[in-house]
């Protein structure tokens, strides 16, 4: 009985993730890369969060080599990427060398990143890279600073510094940026990086968060069932749907095999899987 139930749930989850061909029929969609790497597209607009990083630390997914090659070559599904967003400078989220290489290969890409990441890019750049930095948008934010608004063409971009998990005891120096991006004035997504799930980080900017409900949020999986994670997603970010990221490879794809607290939630666990954003 347990097997049958488990099989049905697996099928239901599979039906929930549609093939990319369907997802690209003009509607908005999210396409999973690895760890916290996600591509979001809406019509002609296409953005990437945390797409290039060197470290799995033995427990997170790396972007498959073939997927990475397509990204550098600008081949589908990575053709005409508009912007890349970096959550923070940790090895399982960001490679300064690879983001520089991507910018050299794809001259239309704009990069949005916290200052710590941009400093690392500058120290890895050669003299010939000077012009690249005209396409790098650095945000310099302290904890409790007001949200910053940026943007380009068809993207509205908001940045807020939310402490890295470990707050208030550790990693306080890490500039973790929660990006809220609206594509084509129609699809809003929120990528939380490695945010700490405590509502105290969201109360001061309650009006900012509630001003633009998210069609889809990408929280680290520890938002499900830890701290104020669910209240933040539902009450602050007002996410209509959330898909968890940063999922350890040891976590079963079968919800019934997961710890109780993680059974009822949608998680990205396989490179290339997609979700339609409605
Ligand atoms: Zn981190």
Radius of gyration: 18 Å
Q: How can the largest sheet be summarized?
A: 7 strands, mixed
How far is the first residue's CA from the last residue's CA? 34 Å
The tally of beta strands, per DSSP, is 12
What is the H/E order? HHEEEHEHEHEEEEEHEHE
Helical stretch count?
Answer: 7
Stretches where pLDDT is under 50 for at least 5 consecutive residues are 1-24
Average pLDDT works out at 91
Bound molecules: zinc ion
Strand content: 15-25%
Count structural domains. 1
Which helices and strands, and how do they pair?
Elements: H1 2-16, H2 20-23, E1 28-34, E2 37-42, E3 45-49, H3 65-73, E4 83-85, H4 96-105, E5 110-114, H5 115-124, E6 136-139, E7 148-152, E8 155-161, E9 177-183, E10 187-191, H6 206-210, E11 216-218, H7 229-236, E12 274-277
Parallel strand pairs: 3-4, 4-5, 5-6, 10-11
Antiparallel strand pairs: 1-2, 1-12, 2-3, 7-8, 8-9, 9-10
Helix pairs in contact: 4-5
Bound molecules: zinc ion (ZN).
